[in-house]
Amino acid sequence: MCWKFSRAMDKNRISVALLLLLLTFNSFSSAQFPTQLIIKEWVDQMQQDLVNLAETATGVKNFAQIFLDKKQYFTVQTNNATQLVASAARNIEELLHNRSTALERLAEHAETLQAKHKWKNEFGEEGEIAYYNAKDKLDSNDTEGRKNGLRPDFKMDPAFKRPVSYNHTAVHIPTDIYDGSTIVLNELSWTAALEAEFKRNREKDPTLLWQVFGSATGLARYYPASPWVDSRKTPSKIDLYDVRRRPWYIQGAASPKDMLILVDASGSVSGLTLKLIRTSVSEMLETLSDDDYVNVVYVSVPSDLSDDYVNVVYFNNKAKNAAESCFTHLVQANVRNKKKLKDAVQNISANGMTDYKKGFKFAFDQLSQVNVTRANCNKIIMLFTDGGEDRAQGIFQEYNKDKKVRIFTFSVGQHNYDKGPIQWMACTNKGYYYEIPSIGAIRINTQEYLDVLGRPMVLADKKAKQVQWTNVYLDALELGLVITGTLPVFNKTTTDDVKDGSKKKGRQNQLILGVMAIDVSLDDIKRLTPRFTIGPNGYYFAIDPNGYVLLHPNLLPKNPKFQEPVTLDFLDAELENDIKVKIRKDMIDGLKGEHTIHTLVKSQDERYIDRGIRTYTFAPVNGTDYSLALVLPEYSLHYIRAKIGDTISQAKFGIPPPGDPDESERVTGPWLQSYEPEKWGGQGVTEWRFRPSPAHPLAFISIYTEFSR
Questions:
Q1: Which residue from 168, 302, 158, 148 is spatially nearest to 227, judged by alpha carbons?
Q2: What is the pLDDT of residue 54?
Q3: Most buried residue, 175, 220, 555, 704, by most Cβ within 10 Å?
Q4: Are residues 279 and 324 in the same domain?
Q5: Quick check: is 581 in a domain?
Q6: Rounded distance, CA 437 to CA 290, Å?
């Protein structure tokens, strides 16, 4: 009651102050407008009144004295930032190591299962392969006309935030793939045994989230089983998901690459063919990750173009760079750069004639540049054309004699041009030839090159097997923001050579079967970075080798796109300065360090900017490419720890706390209501909840304990 009365009085004080100010202002006539000095006096007076009111209402002046008077009940501790970062980094390292171990078991088991599988060209009754199709409707008992359809018993799971079944796996097959094809049926057959290994992994670690095998055929089998989408909520939604287009699959299926996309924009590709080429190039860009580098080069006549395009090659007369200056060489295939390239491709116009020699010469020059950042792994040229008579044989002999650059060629559109020359280009340069006659063939044919690039990985076997962790992205099954550990799964079978009617053991199969993956939620990682001693404006953040944040208070994507990773650079997440640039570089290089800097700080509501002092302490997360940092303001370098160990037993027996001036004042009632063991940063710390009366000497400890939570 007193509190309500006090609040009412405070409101009345403000109202009276504003009324007096208005009356004072009205006392001046229009001819006697207040001077600047008078207005400043009013502002100063209002400022002082507001400060006094705030001090009175909050009791801030008395707060320090209270802590001095009750100092026997607490100690002042120092936040050792180096130890805090090292401890949190170890916890994250342990979490990711456990996930990596589970991933390695799954990949090894999958390779063994596939090697033992006997290929079938024909399947009898559909009942031979029973599986749950994740796209089956929840509100219907039919399983899309299949006799072999399973219907799991789903239960809501708080960890996954959706209904799941731990008794089964679920299978997702892309809409544009026939689920009754021989390849898919064989995939369904041998991957069914993965269910047992998924379950064993969960028995060893019940905190595991999605375990997924993404096949090179497009099939995805994941555990635990869960409906893909709830058709009752989104009845008209079209399923365009293809596991081979997901960021984690792209990263795990091939090594980093330098790609130069060469587009024929001569007059013969006008109309539908040009539209198909534009769409094909855009889809090709979607197969690249942040580990790749790319540029787009296309054919056109120079006379009617300005210098405002993306890196352009004119095949007929000369090579010329048009576009932004930063696109005069290969650029990182991040979300921003890919968008710029896609937009520029839409501006391509068809005219002139084709000269492959000029185009390939320029492409090889781009790939051979040594003074720019590149992937320095696979080098490939993608040619999109409607065909031509020139093989550019002399250019390949001069620039690609050792076949270090693979050439992939795509015949686009329906036409009668000779395809022989572009087939020869691909076969001679360790590439592959594809045909894209219509829009329906684009998605499949623009991603199959990954199988070819995966061959060296299969031959390298264990040397190429390394768990990779992705950028942050939005989980397709509504888990929120996650990172994913990936590991390629290789085909360990051998091909048989048949000569003179006798069968001989041939070469090892060079196909990649797919990618195994395990998700880690960002919420799980955040729990390993304890915050209860660092105050409201202290925070942890982590970055990956590209400088993108894994953890950060400002990593709050408002409308994350399902198809794209969530990429926020550290220098974009905070107000940039020169020292932060160095911090970013040192963290990417895996160094340890600490910097105290003056920097501009945004308020949590993003409405104000203030200048403050922050200490950045960072260290690598061993076993991963991530680096973790802790940021502390000056007022978070210390914290208060309550001395509550001795008072617990006293409270139980009604003994007054030590130093209590009035021993007759005993604790009446269960002021020590409850205690809870909580886990902070992986270490058990017992915190006690007090419920003393407001007048009790230990009341401020209760307030602090609750505040620290």
A1: 168
A2: 86
A3: 220
A4: yes
A5: yes
A6: 30
Structural domain tally of the chain?
5
Is 267 inside a domain boundary? yes
Whether residue 121 sits in one domain with residue 241: yes
Residue range 399-411, pLDDT digits in tens: 999 889 999 999 9
Residue 610 pLDDT exceeds 50: yes
420 in any annotated domain = yes
More confident residue, 643 or 29: 643
Residue 34: inside a domain: yes
Same-domain pairing of 562 and 482: no
Does 340 score more than 50 pLDDT? Answer: yes
Asked if residue 555 and residue 658 are part of one domain, the reply reads no
The kind and range of the H/E element at 572 are helix 570-573
The pair of three-digit structure tokens given for residue 20, joined into one six-digit string:
């007096």
pLDDT tens, residue by residue, 67-116 = 788 888 888 888 899 999 999 999 999 999 999 999 999 999 999 999 88
Q: CA–CA separation, 84 vs 149, rounded Å?
A: 51
Is residue 480's pLDDT more than 90? no
pLDDT exceeds 80 at position 616: yes
CATH number, domain with residue 320: 3.40.50.410
The residues with which 483 forms a beta bridge, in sequence order, are: 520
Closest by Cα among 189, 40, 60 to 128: 189
pLDDT at 26: 55
| DSSP β-ladder status, 155-157 and 162-164 | antiparallel
| Cβ neighbours for 23, distance < 8 A, ≥ 6 positions apart | none
Secondary structure, 3-state, 3-18: HHHHHHHHHHHHHHHH
**pLDDT (0 to 100) of residue 659:** 46
CB proximity list for 460: less than 8 A, separation 6 or greater: none
Measure the CA–CA gap between 380 and 384, rounded to whole angstroms: 13
The overall longest dimension of the chain from CA atoms, in Å, is 116
End-to-end CA distance of the chain: 28
Distance CA 171, CA 168 (A): 10
| CATH number for the domain that contains residue 477 | 3.30.450.20
pLDDT over 90, % of the chain:
29
In the DSSP assignment, the letter for residue 118 is P
Q: How is residue 152 written in tokens? A: 């799991």
Q: Supply φ then ψ for residue 565, to 5 degrees.
A: -70, 155
Same domain as 203, residue 126: yes
Residues 299 and 400 in one domain: yes
Full domain range(s) for residue 574: 536-636
Tokens of 350: 């068809």
Q: For residue 65, what are the CA distances in angstroms to 74, 565, 695? A: 14, 51, 15
